[in-house]
Amino acid sequence: MKKEMIKTAFLRTLPVMAGYMVLGIGFGITLENNGYGIWWALAMSGLIYAGSMQYVAIPLLTSGASLISTAFTTLMVNARHLFYGISMIDKYKGAGNKKPYMIFALTDETYSLVCQEDCPEGMDYHTLCLFISIFNQMYWVTGSVLGSLLGAVIPFDTTGVDFSMTALFVTVFVEQWLSTKNHIPAVLGLLSSAICLIVFGQEHFLIPSMIAITVLMAVLRKIIEKEEEKNA
To answer: CA–CA distance from 66 to each of 4, 5, 44, 74 (Å)?
Structure first.
């Protein structure tokens, strides 16, 4: 059963592997081109493990940004993870000693996989989520290290590499849209983000949109659950 669980986790994370390897390589190359070698790539991907923030961290490192500026930027970039965590409180209950790592490894793409309820019969949900989390971080660390090695021996123009993270977000969203019949959460997210982008502007819309999505999901929770039951 454990082998089947590992196989299931691996197959579910294949789309993430395709994205994380490419994005990780891009990060490693960019980091190397800015004078930070393989040990920086390994440490950042192993201990920070936040793709978009790792990309943002490069100019912060090179510009000598203050601790306060770095902390505030990190909060702004990763604020959405607070809401991911809130939505997983009930799902991660009873995870035991697996919980600390599963919380640490809850990236956007991992969240899109573990929030699903279709755990195969006979498999432990928390253990499956643990393997999914481990596989995804392995892809990211491997890509980062490979990128650092490539950047050290081959010159690259990294212009536009940071857009690849946005492309992966879009891919995950489309995959989620196609895999479920209940599109209420997705529509709420799109509308809330669009309205907040118009009202607050590109630099400040992220946190208001996350708050709006959370409030709407809480208010419309019963409607969403009924829609899920109808489509089950």
So the answer is: 48, 45, 18, 12
Q: What is the pLDDT of residue 123?
A: 86
Give SS3 for 149.
Answer: helix
Residue 75 CA: distances (Å) to CA of 48, 63, 69, 183, 186: 13, 19, 10, 29, 24
User: Which amino acid is located at 159 in the chain?
Assistant: T
pLDDT along the chain (232 residues), means of 10: 88 90 89 90 92 82 77 72 78 90 90 81 89 96 94 76 65 72 82 89 76 81 76 63
The encoded tokens of residue 82 equal 């607070």
Residue with tokens 């669980």: 5
H-helix segments, 88-124: 99-104, 108-114
Predicted model pTM: 0.71
- Contact 115/91 with Cβ under 8 angstroms? yes
**How many residues are given for the chain?**
232
Please list, in sequence order, all residues whose beta carbon lies within 8 angstroms of the beta carbon of residue 2, skipping any fewer than 6 positions away.
none
- pLDDT for 1 equals 64
What b/e string do you get for 170-192 counting C-beta neighbours within 10 Å, with b at 16 or more?
eebeeebeeebebebbeebbeeb
